Amino acid sequence: MQTANRHQIAQVLEINNKSLNVKIPVIGRIAAGVPIEAIETTVSMSLDTLLGGGELVALEVRGDSLVEEGILNGDKVICRLQNTAKEGEIVFALTHRRDIALKRISYKVKNRIILYPSNVKQLPQAYSPAEVEILGIYVGLLRINSSTPR
């Protein structure tokens, strides 16, 4: 986990949500297996709508605790700011008022919040409810192909 204070977290969260209101044309479907017929479409999608709206922020992932979810070091995750999460959701949370983490949450153990990695090399961490502040939930992922020139 990365150590951060509230000021640093506030700076990370000050991301312009208008940048997520970009419309991208959907020009059709593409096969990642057996080729399919090319059919053009004129639909467009808004990232804001696609990700479910709300106040969205992007965070850069450091570490490999969620590799089995397909979330890799260097990826940008999109999270919706909210202070609650359902059982099993991936959250970004503040622990001990100083450490920030992206993990799957569980409330199944009485009087404990468990933050689970999705990496067999790492262990879950248990906290009292007072030690965890949910800041948001994971809603999407951005990964830039580093081999493509920009």
Features of the shown structure:
disordered N terminus; eight-stranded antiparallel β-sheet; Umud Fragment, subunit A; 150 residues; mainly beta; single chain
What's the gist of this structure?
The chain has helices at residues 6-13, 47-50; strands at residues 2-3, 23-25, 44-46, 56-60, 76-81, 90-95, 99-106, 113-116, 125-127, 132-142. The protein is mostly beta strands and 150 residues long.
SS element count, helices:
2
| CATH architectural name | Ribbon
- The share of residues in extended strands comes to 25-35%
On the 0 to 100 scale, the average pLDDT is 80
Structural class: mainly beta
Rg from Cα: 18 Å
Give the tally of structural domains: 1
Low-confidence segments: 1-18
Classified by CATH, the class is Mainly Beta
Order of helices and strands: EHEEHEEEEEEE
Do you know the CATH topology? Umud Fragment, subunit A
Total number of strands: 10
Q: What is the helical fraction, as a range of percent?
A: under 10%
Under CATH, the homologous superfamily reads Umud Fragment, subunit A
Oligomeric description of these chains? single chain
End-to-end gap: 31 Å
* Shape by Cα distribution: elongated
Can you summarize the main beta sheet?
Answer: 8 strands, antiparallel
Could you explain how this protein is built, in words?
The structure is a single chain. This protein has one domain: Ribbon (Umud Fragment, subunit A), CATH 2.10.109.10. It starts with a strand and ends in an 8-residue tail after the last strand. The N terminus is likely disordered. Strands 1, 4, 5, 6, 7, 8, 9 and 10 form an 8-stranded antiparallel β-sheet that branches. Helices cover 8% and strands 34% of the residues. A hairpin with a 6-residue loop joins strand 7 and strand 8. It has 2 helices and 10 strands. The protein is mainly beta and 150 residues long.
